Amino acid sequence: MNQTFNHLLRSTLQVIYPELCCICQANLVRGEYHVCTACAFDLPYITGNQQDVTKLSKLFWGRVTIEQVHSLFNYQKGNHVQTILHAIKYKSRPRIATHFGTVLAKSIPADHGLTCIVPVPLHPKKERKRGFNQSQAIAEGLSAVLELPLYNRYVIRNAFNESQTKFSKYDRYENVRSIFTVVKPKLLEKQHVLLVDDVLTTGATIESCAAELLTAVPGCKVSIATLAARV
Ligand SMILES: [Zn+2]
Fold it and tell me: How far does residue 36's CA lie from ligand 1's centre (Å)?
């Protein structure tokens, strides 16, 4: 009954406010979520491509110990993945992030060994301005499918590392170092944390967050999941 009502409500709303594909703006039909079938088919998926996965892990070699790196899409300037990320962040559509979080979760092998999920925090000022943390929204989708607890606010962001783009790659690592603090290390002890962010480019921000977890929490392991990565 409830499901029938939901379908009815969705169909009615669809007529009044048709849901559009966040890439091509075509009207979505039943069974399509946020992206139409044609656009979804064309998206550059990373998952399952061993070469891409190895390339992503290499980002952290010799810097910080990361167990697994999971990423759904290949992000390139101007591609459709950038359009999706833009819609999430700047058109305030966190539900797109949660949806793709569930898709990402389904690509993670069953023997992952993960025990909890931690989203990379935004600076509170930035989160207030945006109204949500996109990493948290992705983490919600992952948590629902993987059936793992989601620990928000166990890690906080200290400084506002603005105008990062002015720095060289090396300086960027220095700039983001120690901007995170684990506020509840006891509760994360011996956990295998899945650290979640929206996009992996240089890896500097997520590396800093992972390093902080590995330093502050005894017996902790860290894996990474992002919606997109530049491979
Ligand atoms: Zn489309």
Answer: 4
Rounded CA separation 121/84 (Å): 20
SS (H, E, C) 46-110: CCCCHHHHHHHHHCCCCCCCCCCEEEEEECCCCCHHHHHHHHHHHCCCHHHHHHHHHHHHHCCCC
**Residues 226 and 68: beta-carbon distance below 8 Å:** no
Domain(s) labelled CATH 3.40.50 in the chain stretch across 43-229
| Distance from the alpha carbon of residue 32 to the mean position of ligand 1, in angstroms | 10
Q: How far is the CA of 40 from the centre of ligand 1 (A)?
A: 7
CA of 197 to the centre of ligand 1 (A): 24
What spacing in Å lies between the alpha carbon of 138 and ligand 1's midpoint?
Answer: 21
Q: Model confidence over 114-173: pLDDT tens digits?
A: 999 999 999 888 899 999 999 999 999 999 999 999 999 899 998 655 545 445 555 555
pTM: 0.86
| Site of tokens 């409500």 | 9
CATH number of 43-229: 3.40.50
